[in-house]
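During the second half of the funding period, the structural biology subgroup turned its attention to how the target accommodates small molecules. The most pressing case was adenosine-5'-triphosphate, which had performed well in the primary screen but for which no bound structure existed. We therefore specified the complex as follows and requested a full 3D prediction, including the ligand pose.
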Amino acid sequence: MPDSRAQQVVEVRAALSHALGAAEDALEAAQNAYEQAVTRRARVVAAARERRRRLAEQRDKRLHEIDEQHERDLAALAGAAAETALAAAPGAAGLPWDRWRPTPAGTQAPAPELRVGRLLLPYDGEVPALAPLLDHGHVVVEGDARIGDDVVAGLLLRALGGAQAGRVRLTGYDPEQLGGGLAGFAPLAPAGVLSFVGPGGLPALLDELVDHVRRINETVLAGEHSSLRELAAATGRRPEPWRVAILLGAGRADELSRHERGQLDRLLRTGAACGVHLIIRGLPVRPAAGIEVVSAAEGDAARLSGCGDLPVCLDAGPPASVITRTARQIADEVAAGPAPVALDSLLPEHEWQQSSARALTAPLGDSPQGAPVLVTLSDYPPHALIAGPSGTGKTNLIYAWMGALAARYSPAELAFYLLDFKEGVSFARFAPGRRDPSWLPHVRLVGVNVNTDREFGLALLRFLGAELRSRADAAKRHEVTNLAELRAEDPAGSWPRIVAVVDEFQVLLSGRDAVAAEAVDLLEDLARRGRSQGIHLVLASQDVSGIEALWGRPALVAQFSLRIALPRARRVLAETNQAADSLPRYHAVVNADSGAIEANRVVRVPDAGNRERWSELQHRLWRHRPPELSAPRLFDGDAIPRLEDSPEFRTFTPADTVPAPVVLLGETIDVASRSAQTVLRRAPGRTIAVLGTRVDEACAVLGTAARSLAAQFTPGAAQFSVACLDTDAGAAVDALKAYLPAETGYFDNDNIDVLLEGAAERAEFGSAADKPWFLLLYAVDAAPGGTSELLRRIMRQGPERRIHLIGWWRGAALLRDTLGGQGTRTDTVGAWVALDVHGSELSPYYPGHGSPNWYPRPWRALHFDRSVHRGAEVIIPYGPS
Ligand SMILES: Nc1ncnc2c1ncn2[C@@H]1O[C@H](COP(=O)(O)OP(=O)(O)OP(=O)(O)O)[C@@H](O)[C@H]1O
C-alpha cells in the first residue's frame, strides 16, 4: 500500500510535475503570444500614426494648393477690375491727386466715370471706385459732411479737368455756406464757367435747368437722337456744354416744396441725356437708376451704391492749390476763347459758280451746332450794319465775308467798293502793293487813311448815287423794277451787285457840317433805292456813336435790316436783345431782322486775318481774273500823288497853238483818279491865286501849274516868266527850271517891276494874237510898293490878251490888298487854291454870301474856279517828282 501510496505520490507528483510543466509551457506560450500581440499592436499603432500624418500632409498640401489658386483667381479678378476702372477713368478722371493734371479730351467726350476712392479687396494693387457722371447720371453724397465735401470737390475737378475748357459749366446752390463749399472753384466765376444761385434761388435754377432740357430735346435732339452723347457720336460734334448743378442742401426732409421735388425728379430722370447732371448733398432724393449714392465715411466704412457691399476707402479731397490752379487755367482758356477756325471752311468746292441775280449769299462761319451760317444781301435784307468794339474782330469778319463772297461770285457778279475811315490800312491788302502785285479782282476801289479826307467818302457815295441812277434808267428803259429782272432783260449788260463797305463810317457822319449833311442824304437815298438795284451798303463801326449817328434817321436805319454784332457790341441789335454781351471771342450774332431777338443766329467766324491764307485765296482768284479787268483804284490819304501819274497830264502833248491851256493844280479827292484843273481861256478873270503861308504846298501847286502848262506847248509857243520874291521858295523854283523852256525869264525883288511893267503894258496894248504869256509869281505880296497897280492892270486886262497870272499870296488879306483893299471887286481872280486860309476869309472870293466849308489841314488845299464850280473842291497837291 505504501508503495501504492508512494506510487500514488509519485504518480501525483509526476502528474503535478507534468501539470506544472504544462502550465509553465502554457504560461510561456501565453507570454509569447502576449509579447507578439504587444509587438503587433505597437506596429499597428505606428502604422496608424504614420497614415494619419500622411493624410494630414496631403490635406495640408491640397489646402495650400486651393489657397494659392484662390488667391490667383482673386488677383486676376481684381486686376481686371482695376484695369477696367483705369480704362474707364483715364487721365483727369482717375489720376491720383499727387499726379493729377487736366487732360482735356480733344474732340472726344470726357470720361463719364470719375474716381472717388478705392475698393478694399485682398489684392496688392489698387482697384479704383468710380462714380458715373457726365452723360451718364447724377451723384448723391450722403454721410460724413467733411468727407462728403471732399467727394464733391473731387468729382467737380475731375469733370472739369477731363473736358475742354468751358465745356463743363457749373452752377452752385449752397445756401448753408453761401458758396463756401465751392470756394476753390471761384476763379471760374468771372469766365462764366461757374455761377451761384442765392439761398432762394433753387426753384428758379431747377426751372431753368428743366427748361434747358426741354429746349435741347426740342431743338437740338429734335427727335433724331436720344441723347447728346448719341448725337455727338453720330455727328462728331457736341453742340451743347455739360451743365453740372451742385445742390448742397441743409439735410432737412422738408427742404423741397412739391414743385421743387417734381422738378428735381424730372431732372434726375431726363437730365443726363441732355448733358444736365446733378451732384446733390443734403437734399432728399429717392434712389433710382442713374443715381450713384456715395455714403461718405471714415476708413473702410464708405460704400458706393454701384459697388454693392464692397468696402470702399474714399480719396482725400484734391489739394486746394490744385483746385485753384486748375480753375484759373480753365478761366484763362475760356477767356482766351476757342482756337480759331480756318478761312478755308468758308470756301466753296467750285469757285465763281454762283449767280448774284437775286442775292448774294455766303457763309460767315459755323453755328455752335456746326452748321454753316449763311448771310444774304438781297432785296431783303439789303444793307448791313456791323458793330463791335475795337479788337473784337470786326475787320476780320469783313475779310471773312468778302472772302466767302469773292470765292462764290465772279467779278462779273460782284464788285466791292471799300472805304476804311480807321487809322491804318486794313483794306490795302485788296489792292496791288509794292510787295504783292495781286489784287482781289472784285475790288474796284479801296480808300485807306481817309479819316481826315471825309470828302472821299462823299465822293464814293456820289459815285454810287450816279451808278444807282444809271441802273434805274436802264431798268426804266427795259421796263423792269429790279436787278434780277434787269439782268434777265439785258443779259449782255454788266450789272454786278455792288457791295460798298465803309468801316468806321461814323467818321463820315461826324460833325454837323456840309460833308456830314450831304453824306446822310446820299446814304438815305442809296439805302432806300439801292436795294432793288443791287447796290448794298455795309456800314461798320466800333463805336456806339457810330450807330447813334444814324439814330436820328429812323428811315435810314430801317433799311439796314441785316445786323451783325460782335462780342459786347452795343445798340446794333434791338434794345432788349443782349445776345452780344455773352458772345465768346471770334463769334458774332447775325440777325437779318433788324436785331429782333428771335432772329439771332450765333456764328463762329474763321480767321481771315491770316495773311498767308488770305493771299493764297487772293492769288488764286487774281490768276483767274478776266484779262480786261483793271486793278482797283487805291486812294491812300497818306500818300502824296505824283503829277506823272495824273491821267490828264499823261494826255498832254506839246502843240504850237493851244486855245485853252489847262492848268493842273493837284489831285481831286475822288473815286476816279483825276486832276483838279482850271482852263486859262482868253477871257476875263482867268487868273489863278494860291493863298496861304505854307511854302512847300504853295510851291507844289505853282510848280504843278507851270509844268502842266509847259507840257502843252512846243518850245517857243508860249512865254513863261517866273518871279521868286520869297527866298524860301528858291529851291522849288530852281527845281522847276528843268521843266520850263530855256528862254523862261527869272525875276526877283530887284527886277520884278521890270517884269510887271512889261506885262501890264502888253495887257493894255498887246493883241489877242500874241502867244500866251504865263507869269508865275511866288510871294506876290512881297512885291515892292507901287507894283499893285501893275498887278491889277495885268489881272484886269491880261487874260483877254492871253497874259495869265498865276500868283501866290501868303494870305487872303494880302491878295485883297493887291486888289485894292476892302470893298474892291474880286472877280478878276476867277480861280483860287487856298491852303492854310480859313473858309471865312475866302468869302470875298466865293459866290453868294457864304463862305466855303474849309478847315485847313496839311497837304490839302481848296480849289475853286468861278467859271465851272458851284462849290469848292478839296485837292491834294502833287508832290515833288
Ligand atoms: N475769327 C478770328 N479768328 C482768329 N483771330 C481773329 C479772329 N477775329 C479777329 N482775330 C484777331 O483779333 C485781332 C483783332 O481783330 P480785328 O482787327 O478784326 O478787330 P477789329 O474789331 O477790327 O479791331 P479794330 O477796330 O481795333 O481794328 C486781330 O489780331 C485778328 O487777327
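Two results from this model are relevant to the next phase. The chain has four domains: 28-88, 106-328, 343-362+372-411+466-497+506-627, 643-876. The chain has a mean pLDDT of 91.
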